[in-house]
Every structure is written in structure tokens, then in C-alpha cells.
Amino acid sequence: MTRSRRPFFCGNWKLHGTIAESLALATEVRNGVATHRDADVAVAPTFTALHAVAKRLEDGPVAVSAQDCFWEDKGAFTGEVSAPQLVEAGCKYVILGHSERRQLFGELDAAVNLKARAALRAGLAPIVCVGETLAERDAGETLGRVQAQLEAALAGISATDLERVIVAYEPVWAIGTGRNATPAQAQEVHRFIRARVATLAADVAPRMRILYGGSVKPDNIGALVGQPNVDGALVGGASLEARSFAVIVKNSI
Ligand code: PEP
Questions:
Q1: Would the CA dihedral through 68, 69, 70, 76 be positive or negative?
Q2: Measuring CA to CA, which residue among 180, 193, 178 is closest to residue 230?
Q3: pTM score, two decimals?
Q4: Which of 51, 136, 170, 190 is catalytic?
């Protein structure tokens, strides 16, 4: 398949894994995707495993992402982890605005924007998550909700910095539910996201990678990435099995 954008796959391990388990999984993922050179691949372990996993994966084809960061670089912010600390730990990416952070921890669009700007300042590539709830979809508010989240998250970010931003469309009703968006539903929203990014930076929009996330599995990824605006996936549950994750990457390229 000829593509204008290099596919990207990131495994979000959420709150799973001891350091030893994360190292074992990272090694399996590295071995599983070693021959798939036509995609960028990353894994996102828990904070405590980041440094060890980054060391294990150093100089290999799999990069490391964090699952969140704080917007200040240092200070009296008990419990937070800053973007420069993530860079020091070996991260290249950071997932921001995941729906679990928004729903369970009250994270607001303004915080996602501050975090994205901090990540870019530190040299990280933010993976900015947006997506509607089932109630919003049923009320016909999908595109409006996604637009509001996207524009708030990207506010004030220069075109140069936007080059490093990755957007993940993750319908909340599809995360961890086994119910994924149809390829047509994903394409509609991804095309819309690209059009909105074009209003911010026309040159950047055609190059921006827009990932789909929500119950991605080896048997549904092919049809999703077959859509012209779907450039890869943010994978939760299926990324905890190295073989499934490797097959997802393989079935996409
Ligand atoms: C996610 O948490 O980003 C996700 C997409 O999860 P799952 O693949 O399990 O639906």
C-alpha cells in the first residue's frame, strides 16, 4: 500500500505491569516488530517502568511514550512528572488528554493544551487524544465535540511545533468495550480532524498523523487503516499481548 504518511502504532499499557513484566513485554514487542520497518512503533508503560524499558529498547525500532505529563517543568507539584523528566527517562512521545484522564481525573481541555505545549518545549511528540462519548454521538454532537477538544488542545501551538503533534481519535464508547468504530465512522472523523488542522496550519495538515483508538484488534485494524485518513492506532488491551500488537502492526503495512 502506498501511503503519504508513515503509519504509527502506540501500545498504551495503562496501569499494567511491574518493571520486570514491562521489560519482558517490551522485549517481546521489539522482537515481534523487528522486521516491520515501514511503521513507527512505540509502547507506553507506567511511569515507574519508563526508564528501564527505554534502556531495554535503546537503539531499536520501538520507541517509548509516557501516558501523561505535567505542564510545569519543576516546582512544588507533589505527585507530578514533568516533560523534561520524561525526556531524561528516554521517552520520545507522551499521550495527552486520554479519555480515562478526562473522565476519571477531571482533566480539562485547558490542561491538555498546557501539557501539549510543555511536551513540545521539552522535545517530546505529544499524542493528543480526542473523542466523543456515546451520548454525544447519539445526540449528533460528535464532530462538534471533537472540534472543541482539538482546537482547545492545539491553541497557541505554532505551525512548526504542530509538525510534531500526533492526534488520536478515540471514541469513548469504543475504548475497552470491544466495540470499535466502523471504518467509515473513523474516516469521517479523521477527515474532519485533518480539515480542522488545515485551518490552523494548511501545510502541516496533510502530513499530520491521525491515529484511531478503541478496541483495535488484529482482525479489525486492516479495514481501519485502509481508510485514507487513518494513519495507525493507539492500542490499549491488545497491546498487552506482544503477539497481538505485532500482528496489528503487520496487518497494517
Ligand atoms: C486506549 O486506551 O487508548 C484504547 C484504545 O484502549 P482499547 O484498545 O483497549 O480500547
A1: positive
A2: 193
A3: 0.97
A4: 170
